[in-house]
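Backbone shapes recur. Consider a single case.
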Amino acid sequence: MEFCRRVLVVFILSQIVCTGAQDDAEEVACSPGFQVKQYQVEYDGGFLKDQPLLKVVFDDCAENQDVSFEVSHPDFLIDEDLNLVPRRDVIDSGAVLFVHGLNAHADDMAQVDIMGAPPRSPQTLREIVGLGDITPYRTKRSLLVPPMFVPENQRAPFPRSIGKVISYDMKDDHYFRLTGKGADQDPKGVFSINRRTGEVAVSRALDREAIAFYHLQVSTTDMSGNLVEGPVDLDVYIIDQNDNRPIFKESRYSGEVLEGSPSGTTVMTMTALDADDPNTDNAVLRYIILRQSPEKPSPNMFYIDPERGDIITVISPSQLDRETLPTTQYELEIVAKDMAGSEVGLTGTATATITITDRNDHAPEFTHSLFQASVDEGSTGVVVNLTVDDRDDPATGGFRAMYSIINGDPNQSFEIHTNPDNNEGMLSVVKPLDYESSMFHTLMIRVENEDPLVPDVIYGPSSTATVYIAVQDVNEGPVFFPDPLMVTKWENIPVGSFVAMLNATDPDFRQIQSVRYGVLRDPAGWLSVNPVKGMVNTTATLDRESPHVHNNRYSAVFMATDNGNPPATGTGTLIITLQDENDNAPYVVPSVARMCEDAKEVNVAVIGARDKDIHPNTDPFKIELGKQLGLEKTWKISRINNTHSQIMLLHSLQRANYNVPLVLTDSGFPPLTNNTELKVQVCTCKKNRMDCNGAVTPVTDLLLLLSLLTLSILCEYHPDLQSFVDKE
């Protein structure tokens, strides 16, 4: 009976039933499925969208719960009132429609003939049902091949008959032949057909999870093997058996739920898979919690939705308190059972570990309301560590403390930071304290968490504490005032001249102490100080042009030491701004000039004057030739500006080095003059190139210079003499 109910047939084969099933049906008052198997509707050029065409009659003998219908043409459907309705305007309906009805109690098919409709492309049951790509019976001539169904995991004996193929034109010399995968192709020999009767048999147990569907072909041949009819498709479907137990993707799952969460909070979802047919109860799973560990405060703290696998909280929010629970982790043994959870279902298990996570429902509290510390004046660093208690999770911002000074530090002399290792507050002095100004400091400290508290929790009095700090007196070094001390003096003042009077006082005014002065750093060794009075005098000449003077300023450092126990020393700086005197004569730059031996070439050089003094003891400079006789016949100096002039060679000279006497004078009062020499290299110039190599010894003697000048003039008028000079 069950076999015949599962066989999907088109209308023609719906008349063929098993004999045993027919006998049983007579005893049953209701036959599940379509009560009318064949319907007709007139075709009048097409069908309009949402206009019912007819009403099918379907009864599963169990109140038609969860019945699903599918129509072979995708543009038609069966609505809630069992009407056949077009989804859209349809013209190409074809001449026949198949309607498939399916639920847990019935699996049946009906046929709708559309009278007068033009033919449509061949239809298949692939458009009808969700059992796979089922191919309808197709008749070619008189060969009738119904689909067949085989339960998996059948036991011996084999072969077992699974159905029969019929040919209305079968002759005595005709034979049935079965081909395709499962017959004469791999896996070979799974199915066979009786050559004479058309009975199809299976040769061994099958596994639906390996192959769920076989597509074969049936044909008839004559005795010589020549094709008579066919081939016609034969589809064999493997009926699922519950031979696979549910399997969880993982053996252990992890989830979290925040403490205090309301009952019904979803924690996590457990998912198991079953390899059996998802369209049967064999793969319909139900979930249960088999065991909870630990069982306190309640063995039923959690519940699992039997169908979805969602684990939700059952315990009240007040009991779901991380700080009072015996543990922060609970383990649940989850069982998934197929067959919709029935007793005969197969099971699979997994473990769910649920962690109760923390929320900031406890404010931090100081372990003491008063902390005390002492610190030496003038020192910095940590002076006291403040400790707090917090019952929240140390790994969260609901535990980590943040400290702040809310009172008692108007000068920002203190800072407080959290020690990340132990959550303590490290109170530090960042600006040195002065015992003489204040011997005691009282601070108010507040502690909070990084994360905000939950709405029903507030920071109480224990979240503040008082810190009492006593400052210890330390012998401090004398302090110079002003520091630096700045004075202005002329350079070159007489040795022993007064420079400045130092002033250093001892800040320890509660003690009676004396101060003595000394020189700590005097780079040029120009100064001395009276050890008692602090008077500074010169011990050498002050020179503004000294390398120890920068930007006209000379710096020296002095120290003052008290007679405390132990003695303390302070330092102060004296800065002397030196005023310039005209004590440096100007000098020529550059010291060497180059010219061509032919006065027609490059015969001019630019020279300048410089002075170590500063304005007004520098430029404008006067640059003149020396007072030697005859220089003005060979050289000429012309002023360019306040600092530079040009020197010109008036006639050609032999290649050599010449020292030209110069007189340089600055503009100081009184002015200073420098008698110096300029080295002039007279070089050979050819094609814009100057060759100064091999110049003879500098000519400095005026008589020799005049002699060379005379010789040069003679050579211009006596070429033979010039040739002689060249040879020499």
